[in-house]
Amino acid sequence: MSSEDKIEQLSRPEERRAWLSKKANWIRLSAMTMTHHAKLGHTGGDLSSSDILATLYLGNVLHLNPAEPSWPQRDRFVMSKGHCSGAFYSTLAQRGFFPLEQLKTFMDPLSMLNGHPDRNKLPGVEANTGPLGHGLPIAVGMALAARMRNESWRVFVLVGDGELQEGSNWEAAMCAQQYGLDNLVVIVDRNRLQQGDFTENTINMEPLADRWAAFGFAVKQIDGHDHLALYEAFSTVPIAKGKPSCFIARTTKGKGISFAENKPAWHHGVPTQEQLELAAKELGVEVTW
C-alpha cells in the first residue's frame, strides 16, 4: 500500500470509508502476520481496535508529524491496552513513523518492537504501556501538563473495556473531572471480551455510559467499526466545553475474521499458516513487507 496514498485526495465520504476500511484490514492482517511470526500476541484485541487506530492516524484526526516525532505541538496518543501492540505498530508504520520492514522483527531479541510499546525504543510511542490501568492516569497527566503550559494539543487514550476493572482508571477520571480537562479524549474499545471470558461474566460493565457521565465526562456511544462515524465523532472533541470526552466504541473482538470473532480463545490466539491465508482472503488484502 503506497505511502503516497492520502485520504485528503478523496472527496466523497464513501471513498473515504472504503479507503480507511482497506487500511484497517491491512493493519489487521499485518498484526496477525506479526503474531504468527512471534508465536505470541493478542489477536482478538488487535482486530477490534484496528478501525479506531486507522481513523485516528490515517484519517488524520491526530495532529502529528512522523518526520518529527517529538514535535512539541503534536497531539499525544496513549495506547493503554498496550498488549494490542501488533495493531498499534502496524498503524505507526503505515503512518510513516518507521519502515514497514521493521514489522518483521516483532518480539525478536533486541527488536524495537517489544510485546508492549516502549517509548525509549520506538518513534511515535508516547508512553510505555501494558500493565492495565496505567494508560489513562498517564494521559490525564499529559492533558494537565498541556493545560498548565497553556498549550493547545490534545491527548487521546485507547482503553480496553476489561481494563476498566482497574481502579486506577477511576481515580484518573476523578482527576480529569476536577481540572475540567476538555483536551482529554478517552476511547473505550468495548468488545465485551477480556482474557478468558466475556466481560459481563467477570464484572458487569453496564450502564457504562452512565458511569463515565457520573465521573464528569461528556459521553457518546459509537460504532467502533464505522470509519465515518468514528471520524465525525472524533472531529467533535471536546464533546462539551469544560468536560473530558469519552467515546464508547462498540466493537467485535476478532473483527473481520470468521474463526476469531467473539471467541474468547482468540484473546491470545496465534494463527497457523492456513488460518493466516484464510484471513488474507476474508480481509481482501495482502501483506508484502
Provide an overview of this structure.
This protein is α/β, with parallel strands linked by helices. It has one domain: Rossmann fold (3-Layer(aba) Sandwich), CATH 3.40.50.970. The protein has helices at 13-38, 43-57, 85-95, 135-148, 167-178, 208-214, 227-234, 273-283, and strands spanning 76-79, 155-160, 184-190, 193-194, 197-198, 218-223, 245-250. The strands form two sheets. The chain has a five-stranded parallel β-sheet with strand order 1-2-3-7-6, sandwiched between helices. Strands 4-5 form a two-stranded antiparallel sheet. α7 (227-234) links the parallel β6 and β7 (245-250). α2 (43-57) packs parallel to α3 (85-95). The protein is globular and about 50 Å long. The mean pLDDT is 95.
Sum this structure up briefly:
The protein has 8 helices and 7 strands; from the N terminus they run ααβααβαβββαβαβα. The chain is of the alpha/beta class and 289 residues long.
Detail the topology: elements first, then pairings.
Elements: H1 13-38, H2 43-57, E1 76-79, H3 85-95, H4 135-148, E2 155-160, H5 167-178, E3 184-190, E4 193-194, E5 197-198, H6 208-214, E6 218-223, H7 227-234, E7 245-250, H8 273-283
Parallel strand pairs: 1-2, 2-3, 3-7, 6-7
Antiparallel strand pairs: 4-5
Helix pairs in contact: 1-2, 1-3, 1-8, 2-3, 2-7, 4-5
Query: What is the N-to-C order of secondary-structure elements (H for helix, E for strand)?
Result: HHEHHEHEEEHEHEH
Strand content: 5-15%
Identify the CATH homologous superfamily: Thiamin diphosphate (ThDP)-binding fold, Pyr/PP domains
Distance between the termini: 10 Å
CATH topology: Rossmann fold
**Taking all residues together, what is the mean pLDDT?**
95
CATH architecture: 3-Layer(aba) Sandwich
Counted beta strands: 7
- Low-confidence segments, given as residue ranges, are none
Tally the helices: 8
Structural class comes to alpha/beta
Q: How large, in whole angstroms, is the Cα Rg? A: 18 Å
